[in-house]
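Example for reference:
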Amino acid sequence: MKTDNPYLELDQKIVGDVYTSKAPESLLITLCDDFGSRFGGTEGAKLASDLLKEKFAEYGLHNVHKDAYDYDGWYRGKATLQILSPVQRDLPCISLPYCPAAEIEGELVFVNEGRAEEFEKEKDQIAGNIILSQSGGIHRMEKYDRAILHDASGFIFQNHYPGYSEVTGTIGWNHEAIIPGIGISYETGEFLKRLSQRKGKVKVRIQTTDEYRRTQAWNIVGELPGKTYPEEVIIVGCHYDGHDISQGANDPLSGMVVVTEMARVLAAYAKGSLARTVRFVAWSNEEVGLFGAYHDANQFRDSPEKVRFTWNLDSAGSPGGRKGIGLHRLPDFEPFIENAAKEMALDIPIRQGISGYSDHYPYFLLGIPTGSIATIGRPAGRGFGHTAFDTVDKTDTMSIREAAALGARLVLRQLNAVQLSLKPRSAEEIEKMLREDSGLEQHRLREAIYEKLGKENLRQYCNEVV
């Protein structure tokens, strides 16, 4: 039977294997239930790195190794939130990762989602006081950075989802945070808002007792070498660390097991016949500032042209929609995906955008083309993500299988393409995007923060701390 798909036999083997395999589900359960959060500095992080190295080797990857690096690890202490007036009460809270040890007092200033216009409305009230902003809308770090730029003394991050308890998320982004910050539940935040509406200004005291210690972490790396263009590399990766209060089953592990499944089937059915080299990476410490990805990307700083593409599959297997491709401002790559979609008899939605808050970003800064597998159609926001409720029971095996089958088949075609038209962006192109792209407001805010610290720019600061 005539077909327009030259990869039909390989596609059938890959899809059939992926949709009957229990390997990713078994690995995910072990990583979550046996090892916990895998947060940097925990025993679970070490156990997870050992197991992922074992799996990469078991699946037949070459040059499998743990790539170690040292960094300033953050260790949670007790945090307290006390209302001082107009009533006295203790409320539940948690410190946010990379919060310093501190004790502060101030009046609450409510800025809703923390957008620029909401800060502008309250600008005369903020200096020396404590911002309360809810999750959702824009990234947490944008809210936090605006609080610093408005001279707030502290930051409270309210979960905007009811019933999921306190929300977490780093505020230091690979260095000690400048002002203390805590996470609270939706219900606690709504109580504070009602109190303010009924009785006027609310004054609170925040005390945090977190610590820092020099810590070791590991990226896990394995490869399938190319035969025709072995020096040309495509990276496929995901981080394996979750936040310390969470299993992180969907964010990130639904994507981590997609990476291991792609490695397994490509090694089983395409090993020895790939034109280019595929490099699988399990990144560490994404949640606290992309430490692992910066460490890995640094080796390509002088030769970014060797990496033809980096796929960041963070949370790629999350349920709630159909699988598509997210491209980080790469319209010229859409025809390749559209042609592959026709061969695979799939409808693959494509969306374009960029963010600085996941592991593709250090590679993007080097000019390397980057993309992701996206769950198209799922509701905006994290839901139970970054809370204690992101557990194995929230994952969906079919969603993981869909992402793994799509990823393996698409990357196979990329590895064996006669030529790849995408070239690294120049430093001038990247600088222009950092200054002008609508999706990179967070970069511009952090540049302003680092000016306060006396640093030349964001990338200089990141290079110093990683």
Q: What stands out?
A: The domain at 77-209 is CATH 3.50.30.30 (Glucose Oxidase; domain 1).
